[in-house]
Amino acid sequence: MKKQIIILVAVLSCMFAGCSDFLDKQPDDMKTDDMVWSSRTEVEGYLANVYAAIPLHNLHQDDPWLGCSDEIDLSWTVYNTYGINLGNWNPSSGFYNKYSLWYRAIRASFVFENNVDKCDELGKDLKIQYKAEVKFLRGYYYWLLLRQYGPVVLLKELQSGDTDYASLMRAPFDECVDYICQMMDEAEKDLPLHWRDNTSWMGKPNKMVCKAIKSQVLLLAASPQWNGNEEYEDFKNPDGSQLANTIYDENKWEKAAAASREVINISEQNPEAKLRLYKNNENGDDEFNPYKSYVDVQLIKWNCEIIWGAYGNYNTEAWMIHTTPGPKTLGGVGPTQRLVDAFLMENGKTIDDPNSGYIKDGFSTTPNKHWNPQNRAVNTEDGRKKMIADIRQCDAWGHWAGDWNMYANREPRFYASILYNRRIIPQLPDDIDKRNYFNTAGQKDGYARAELYYGGVSRQSGSYTFFSRTGYLAFKNNDPMANMYDRIFPQQYMNVFIRYAEILLNYIEALNEYDPSNADIRKYWDMIRERAGIPSVFSTNPEIAGNKDLQREFIIRERQIELNSEGDRYFTTRRRWLAHTPDQGGATDDRKYGDGGRMWGMDINAGDPASNNFSFSGFYNVVPFETRIFRKEYYLFPIPQTEIDMSKKLVQNPWW
């Protein structure tokens, strides 16, 4: 039973299997249910259901955080992101409506905490631990509510059966933040530093997880959306109480930095926690490979960088099916040109730097130095197989001669994140015939290159024609050793909820806002860049040192790159109050931010499908693929209209 509860695939999948009986019971039922509270099996089953409301980060389908940001387009009209991006939603739409689910889970956490001591089959230590777990979960669900809906109705104890819910009002944002942090502080006191000594419980909260959540919460609280935002001046309860503080407070940045610093201290002062940035040469390989390190941090379960996650689910496999070019798959998760352009060059410079070496047009005539590190002869079938093996094992990476110059000599994280036209598809077997299945007749060279242009094989997916509308496919979180022809996966995967790189980025972002010359900014930023295999930003752009505004722009860009396709970009542009940056209507997209207006990619409809091939240059024209709607009300999801109808004192979010 322990394993069923602790291994979060079993715990979390309950939400999707209808295992919500405990959450749906009325409070009076639970308080008198002796059968539940006298049995360890029943008690731990109840605890599993409190966990069950944790979302599994199904980023390509249910979660809107990728498809509604400026980094990704989802080609399917059946997902919520389609209607949201076109502005076709309102408080009654029900898009990603977790509101009542998370409140049920919060109530269940109180029921559990109030009753678990009745179970004589549990020892004292387990009771203390389990109560700490539900305190964490309570704070976590409030955190999920806060970042999606803003200030919430804050219930701090189990409500009685005669509670007048219609009279409850939302608590001020800062009070919600304080309560979430209180729950994290109380939970961590009775939780271990880590679960390295009891790996069957990996995935449960521990001290590191509690502190990492505080880092996220306090960073949001310090950011412009909630720290001195005068546009929320009229965001008030019916009694006139202010829900958002419109006076800027620099101390909030100090609190955010301190929270992140606590996690960093664990890494630096507690080696048994095994918390650090993942590098392949520190985990079994002889030589450092920045490309492989960045690929594997998402794939190697419970590696040293993962602070919190869930192990043993099929979301990563589904992600690979939706990001691998067709046929036989559903490749339609398309990175935007804005994300592609955000990645740096191999020398660490931005593509608009005149000294970067970036060339936008034309086909490359020489390959990257990493394309063939074994110096293999690749013009024979045996040579092809060996070369494919190098690519799949991450020994070979970078552009090949003949790739478009736009993709030449980019940083390792680019190649670990973006599958572009003509790039060899790693996640296919080394069987030449199976690889040739992914190419048109004139281009069956045994390698399987992505044909994302009009008429290309990569646009033929499943029983329908699904394909990327941007001319790119996401490669991040794809296992290059998978066999997507036969859909065979060489390992089980996990959802990564929080990793150490995010904490380092949180820390330097917060530090920069009140102490931009602090030496820690360079120290920890350089650690991220070193793992990425590129020079320090203070070497490539020394002019930014100590300049708060310039450093901020580069820090946000570093987040955009390092945490791409992980759901961070959506929340970063919103908490930074940048998502409504307008489209100026120019011939090109010169914006760094803005989730409305035109979104850009390759010209996937150019040319004659009967004659297009890899030599067709018209595909590489940067054109809009969609015009999105973003209004200021979209900074927050609307409170579901059903909830508003039940409580006349529950005010709706601004501008809805």
Which geometry do the CA atoms define?
Answer: globular
Number of helices: 24
How confident is the prediction overall: mean pLDDT? Answer: 93
Low-confidence stretches: 1-32
- Beta-strand segment tally: 8
Strand order of the largest sheet: 1-3
Q: Termini separation (Å)? A: 46 Å
Q: What is the compact description of this entry?
A:
The chain starts with a helix and ends in a 10-residue tail after the last helix. The protein is mainly alpha-helical.
Q: Which terms summarize this structure?
A:
single chain, 656 residues, mainly alpha, two-stranded antiparallel sheet, 8 strands, 6% strand, disordered N terminus
Write up this protein:
The chain is mostly helical. 37% of the residues lie in helices and 6% in strands. It is built from 24 helices and eight strands. It has helices at 2-6, 8-13, 21-24, 27-31, 34-38, 40-51, 80-85, 99-115, 124-149, 173-189, 207-222, 251-269, 290-296, 315-323, 337-342, 381-392, 412-415, 432-436, 500-514, 519-532, 537-540, 548-562, 568-575, 641-646, and strands at residues 72-74, 306-313, 333-335, 418-420, 472-474, 493-499, 597-602, 622-628. The strands form four sheets. A two-stranded antiparallel ribbon has the order 1-3. Strands 2-6 form a two-stranded antiparallel ribbon. Helix 6 runs antiparallel to helix 8 (99-115), helix 12 packs antiparallel against helix 19 and helix 19 packs antiparallel against helix 22 (548-562). The longest helix has 26 residues, at 124-149. It is globular. The two termini are 46 Å apart. Residues 1-32 have low confidence and may be disordered.
